[in-house]
Amino acid sequence: MDDKILAASAKHPIVPNHAYKYGTAGFRMKADLLDGVAFRVGLLSGLRSRRLNGQAIGVMITASHNPAVDNGVKIVDPMGEMLEQDWEAHATKLVNCASDQELLDTYKSLAAQLKVDLSTPGRVICGRDTRPSGHGLAAALADACEAIDIEYTDYKRVTTPQLHYLVRCINTEGTPKSYGEVSKAGYNKKMSDALVRALGGRKIEGQLTVDCANGVGGPELSELLKVIPKDVINVKVVNDDVLRPEVLNLDAGADYVKTRQRAPPKPTPVPGNRICSLDGDADRLIYYWIDPDTGFFMLDGDRISSLNASFIGGLVREAGLEDELRIGVVQTAYANGASTAYIEKHLKLPVVFTPTGVKHLHHAACQFDIGVYFEANGHGTVVFSQEAIRLFTEKEPQSPAQKEALETLAAISDLINQTVGDAISDMLMVEVILAHKGWTLKDWANTYNDLPNRLVRVEVGDKDLFETTDAERRLSAPKGAQEEIDSFVKKYTNARSFARASGTENACRVYAEAATRSEADELAKHVADVIKKFGSP
Ligand code: 16G
Ligand code: MG
User: GO molecular function of the protein, one example (predicted)?
Assistant: First the structure.
């Protein structure tokens, strides 16, 4: 075995003098740095599968909303969750080995340390977005699996959430927790059936335009639309060119819309139309419309979160389950303060805060029977406990209204991808809720008014100087920085601001909100100056 690993590793050398780190997005960087990384991630995934008694581990090859020259490799755990945190460090250690021999030694010492029996069977599955570099990276992964005798399946082109779905399906196949058929066709069938059930005969009004960022969501959504019965939903798919890599995420997609706070220039948005944008790997969703009078209006992850919480909270009450099931909402510091107030005061649901990154939110959401979590950037989902799902199907309804509420709850628990935020599944959920409530996007927007806010990216000498506490809402280092931020925040009405080191790039981010646009902008500028000052050596 040793010789096989050494020989295979020699074919996939690591680019030296580069510090690799497994972050919130796995390993993400210029694609030409990634071949050796993908190989090593293959070795680690094999170890992880063997450690977990041969359950399948997933590897997704994508750089999400980044340009086409970038790529990334990310590991998916057996139930479709993000890789367990302790293992991120093991991944970082393995990928940073300087030579083939050091890699082999580290691999073997990790196996010993983690008590992995290298003779047990293991399985790794892989999927990738539409980036041209994905093919070669999957081959590197395959070579790693071959060298350590791990069963390997390449699912080729998938959205990130589809890969999470597939991993969970494989590991639950034939058990009472079975999650669906192990194929993209199985995913589409589950979505389509659940959509029809969740609508319960209601109509989705008008046409929905979906901007797919010229990423993998385009072809995958088109496949799904083919199996949804006629007249259930009218979708116009735009920005779905996956043949020209250079247009991937270019002036399109959820990240563009959220950060620029405007609609993609192409195709020219039709005023009044309902529009949404996915990101390059289809795990983020943002809705918007162009108002003929007031212009662009965006409904981001916070809005999607409160819409879901309001709808599901109502259904749980109608189903007579409010004493049995705990519903909660999970947000990050980026959530608009107005959304938090709406959820706590108007919907009367608890809100919990976690640091940025899906793994944190997901984990906190799982502490509730029904946990709604979304980041403001549009990434999120709803998770249901086994007990909740049991009650939806087994509780004896006391009235026709209760019966309908229980059936709708059961349907939406199938419609929402419970493994991870899924833009396509979230989009269908939004459409279902609007159909139930008989709402337009404007009705949805009228639920509360966002506080004006500003997000700034700040270049610093060393972002690692900045450490946070209290779910990233306060800086614990460098000393004195938080006090300076506090002194500025005090000067503005209804204001809040925080700064944190980015987990995906070498910079800090500053967020500020306040009662007026000009106050939010001013506060953001002051706090950015504080960060610049403390971040330069
Ligand atoms: C990653 C995270 C995303 C988070 C973003 C923050 C996952 C799957 N993705 O893309 O949730 O919002 O990082 O980026 O966890 P930042 O640390 O650069 O601000
Ligand atoms: Mg993404």
Answer: phosphoacetylglucosamine mutase activity
192 tagged catalytic: no
The pLDDT tens digits of the residues spanning 411-467 come to: 999 999 999 999 999 999 999 999 999 999 999 999 999 999 999 999 999 999 999
Active-site entry in 9, 45, 49, 64: 64
Q: Which residues have beta carbons under 5 A from ligand 2 (an ion)?
A: 64, 279, 281, 283
pLDDT of residue 431: 98
CA 3/CA 12 separation, integer angstroms: 15
Please tell me the distance from the alpha carbon of residue 283 to that of residue 446, in angstroms, as a whole number.
Answer: 26
pTM: 0.96
Q: How far is the CA of 128 from the centre of ligand 2 (A)?
A: 12
C-alpha 74 – ligand 1 centre gap (Å): 13
* Amino acid in position 203: K
CA distance 510 to 376: 14
Q: Domains in the chain and their CATH numbers?
A: 2-157 (3.40.120.10), 187-293 (3.40.120.10), 301-445 (3.40.120.10), 453-535 (3.30.310.50)
Half-sphere exposure of 228 (CA within 13 A, CB side): 21
Annotated binding residues, written as ranges, equal 64, 279, 281, 283, 375-377, 500-504, 509
